[in-house]
Amino acid sequence: xxxxxxxxxxxxxxxxxxxxxxxxxxxxxxxxxxxxxxxxxxxxxxxxxxxxxxxxxxxxxxxxxx
Length: 66
Description:
Blueprint (H helix, E strand, L loop, with lengths): L2 H4 L6 H11 L11 H11 L3 H16 L2
């Protein structure tokens, strides 16, 4: 088992950025603590700027009961 899999070593920021670019994933995806958050991030990442704004507005309304 590699040191990365054991958690002994973690890839540096530049390596994570390169992997993200190759896989067309946002860098924060690799730091999500659970699958649900990772899935939400992937969905959000696939949206255009206008749709992202709508999602943020809706999330704020739901979270803060505005």
